[in-house]
Design brief:
The structure is a single chain. Helices cover 33% and strands 17% of the residues. With 243 residues, it is of the alpha/beta class. The protein has one domain (2-235): Rossmann fold (3-Layer(aba) Sandwich). It has a seven-stranded parallel sheet, with helices on both faces. 43% of the residues are buried. The model has no long low-confidence stretch (mean pLDDT 97). Bound molecules: fructose -6-phosphate. Fructose -6-phosphate is lined by residues 35-39, 66-67, 132-134, 138-141.
Length: 243
């Protein structure tokens, strides 16, 4: 695990964006794993800027998102489908057929999850996976106790995650879906590179336990200690509980 600490979240996001850009320049057909939430927003803004101002070309890139809520239509303002189009895809000319996001409205969730795994495999695996971290240590929506060998599947969000994500639903916890589809930890660990971003004091304990604590299913991000190419981009607040 390589830990990169920058003064601000913006500086850390720009440093992470450079890693993504380098990969896309070296491998224009790169397969990117993407995350939602507030953490990657500045990283996505920087990629959009590089696309506009520096001709960073995403036209041959393939993307796979980590997760999606169950029961939200694609058009719902809080669906991850909507989030990704608003905050990235609409601005960088990724081909629609190259975009993959778990289908939260799939009539057969298990079949849809198995098909998602097959699509990742057919694409040759994920070259670079972007991750945030939950205050409970989740990556994707692999909540504490998730198996390290898990694959894309349905998960129930913890109370903590529902509370954390209520801010996206106007503070209304009852509107936050209780279930989601998420890539598994096994899926994430097969990505050739993992970039985890964490900002703010709210993430400091989870970051410290993931970097310096025991590798444990109770702290899912700690599994990255076993990944051969995992980089953590932190601001000073998220790094503040490290020894
Ligand atoms: C989102 C995801 C989650 C978030 C995590 C942090 O696709 O997989 O693991 O990265 O919940 O969320 P924010 O960035 O909103 O603090």
């Amino acid at each position: 695990m390589e830990v990169i600490i920058k003064k601000s979240a913006d500086a850390a996001s720009i440093a992470a964006a450079r890693v993504v850009a380098r990969l896309v320049q070296e491998k224009p057909t790169a397969v990117l794993g993407l995350a939602t939430g507030s953490t990657p927003l500045k990283l996505y803004k920087e990629l959009i800027r590089m696309h506009r101002e520096e001709d960073l070309d995403f036209s041959r890139v393939t993307t796979f998102n980590l997760d999606e809520y169950i029961g939200l239509e694609k058009t719902h303002a809080q669906s991850y489908y909507h989030f990704m189009h608003e905050n990235l895809f609409n601005h960088i000319h990724v081909k629609p057929e190259n975009i993959h996001i778990p289908d939260g409205m799939a009539p057969d969730v298990a079949a849809s999850c198995a098909a998602y795994e097959q699509q990742v495999a057919d694409a040759g695996g994920i070259d670079l996976q972007i991750l945030g971290i939950g205050s409970d240590g989740h990556v994707g929506f692999n909540e504490p106790t998730s198996s390290f060998t898990s694959r894309t599947r349905i998960k129930t969000l913890t109370r903590q995650t529902v509370e954390d994500n209520a801010r996206f639903f106007g503070g209304a916890e009852h509107q936050v879906p209780r279930h989601c589809i998420t890539m598994g930890i096994g899926t994430i660990m097969e990505a050739r590179m993992n970039l985890l971003l964490a900002f703010g004091e709210r993430k400091a304990t989870a970051v410290a336990e993931s970097v310096e604590g025991a590798v444990s299913a109770m702290m899912p991000a700690s599994v990255l200690q076993h990944h051969p190419n995992a980089k953590l981009f932190l601001d000073e607040a998220a790094a503040s509980a490290l020894k």
